[in-house]
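step=encode ok
step=design start
structure_in=
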């Protein structure tokens, strides 16, 4: 990703993700923030990054239609006997968000369009830490790797489902 090195007289800079001027981000911020502006992705400095804080606040603010669908999902999980805290079916992530989970402290893997947290197993995996890290963060689809594991191991993985992969609006519009 190329970052602009000069600021036009208008006070805006070329946005790192679009072809036009970026009025929301100042040059100093853009030099530190690598979050996708088109989805819920936030940078690693989200606690001090104002645009990323705005995104977090916007996604955590309850919306009437989301609240009712969350309530329905909760009731559905209770009626089906599932644990509500393990019901991550409604959680979705873009590839922009998934790619941030590619290290030993947070290793998420992609199996089809399902995302799993492999972090609890990374240090004890018989194939070694690198086996998981090499494919974490959406670097590869691990469907074939999942089939290699025993049925018991596959059932165990279901407990570590994080959510489902959805397209980033930026990728959908291109």
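sequence_out=
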């Amino acid at each position: 990703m190329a970052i602009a090195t000069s600021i036009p007289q208008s006070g805006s800079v070329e946005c790192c993700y679009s072809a036009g001027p970026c009025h929301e981000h100042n040059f100093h911020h853009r030099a530190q923030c690598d979050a996708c502006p088109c989805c819920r992705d936030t940078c690693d400095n989200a606690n001090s990054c104002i645009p990323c804080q705005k995104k977090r606040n916007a996604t955590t603010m309850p919306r009437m239609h989301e609240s009712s669908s969350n309530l329905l999902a909760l009731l559905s999980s209770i009626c089906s006997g599932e644990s509500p805290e393990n019901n991550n079916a409604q959680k979705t992530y873009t590839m922009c968000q998934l790619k941030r989970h590619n290290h030993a402290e947070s290793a998420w893997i992609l199996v089809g369009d399902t995302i799993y947290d492999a972090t609890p197993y990374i240090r004890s995996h018989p194939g070694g830490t690198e086996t998981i890290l090499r494919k974490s963060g959406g670097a590869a689809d691990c469907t074939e790797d999942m089939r290699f594991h025993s049925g018991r191991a596959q059932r165990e993985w279901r407990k570590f489902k994080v959510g489902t992969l959805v397209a980033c609006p930026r990728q959908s519009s291109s």
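step=design ok
step=annotate ok -> DSSP finds eight helices and seven strands in the chain.
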